[in-house]
Amino acid sequence: MIQIKQVNKNYGSNNVLQDINLEVPESHVYALIGPSGAGKSTLIRSINALENIQSGEIIVDGTSVHDKRTNINKLRSDIGFVFQSFNLYPHLTALENVTIAPKQVKRIPKDQAVEDAKKLLTSLGLGDKCNSFPGQLSGGQQQRVAIARALAMNPTVMLFDEPTSALDPEMVKEVLDAIRGLASSGMTMVVVTHEMGFAREICDQIVFMADGKIVEIAPPEHFFSNPETERAKDFLSKVLNH
User: Fold this and answer.
1) What's the pLDDT score for residue 165?
2) Nearest to 156 by CA among 35, 27, 9, 15
């Protein structure tokens, strides 16, 4: 479903991604974890060309993302992306935020888009918030609207860039529960997260990054109990004990 081959990304002399190779099969959930500055967000943003790469190739569902011939708008309509900062339109209601892209990009009739959006919002516990504006919603509710907005495009892949990092602790659970529901439905997902318990619980593979490189890939039960690299051991000793 997602193939990343020998990908390199530089900011000037800073090599933020170095020879990245990764394959995410269909219906699998991969977590990208690691220290700040490891390249996690840059990598996930490269999957739908929010970041350019200097070399290598990224293929999503058979389409080469960074090929100049690729219709990037069509590609992005098939890849749901949830940002840490919500990025909702403040002047639109929750329902309008969810329906705008299906209507404008996929030309779905308004009545159908509204019906689909209401079902999505209800499934995420927001059925009574359809007419609320983002400023009237909690952070957790806004992030669930953002998830509904991404799902409204019927994506084949969902990408999450630290979806809970901007939330107060008591709001984190409701967003993680929404992502758990997607995982159980078989959605292919890549999640950048600092929530180690969540990564251990729902992810098929843990991808540990540091200094722009993939240091270790392992199933969660193996990675968290018996990491193979000293860098991973050091990271876990800090994040699991504090």
Assistant:
1) 86
2) 27
Q: Looking at the 3D structure of the chain, how many domains does it have?
A: 1
Q: Does some domain include residue 142?
A: yes
Q: Give the HSE-up count for residue 51: Cα atoms under 13 Å, Cβ half-sphere.
A: 21
Residue 149 lies in a domain: yes
Domain assignment present for 240:
no
For the chain, what is the largest distance between any 2 Cα atoms, rounded to a whole number of angstroms? 56
pTM: 0.92
Given a cut of 70, the residues of the chain with pLDDT beneath it are 241-242
How large is the angle between the packed helices 110-123 and 139-151, nearest 10 degrees? 130
Q: How many CB atoms lie within 10 A of CB 222?
A: 13
pLDDT tens sequence across 97-118: 999 999 999 999 999 999 999 9
- Domain region containing 98: 85-154
Residue the block writes with tokens 């479903």: 1
Residue 234 in domain: no
pLDDT at site 13: 86
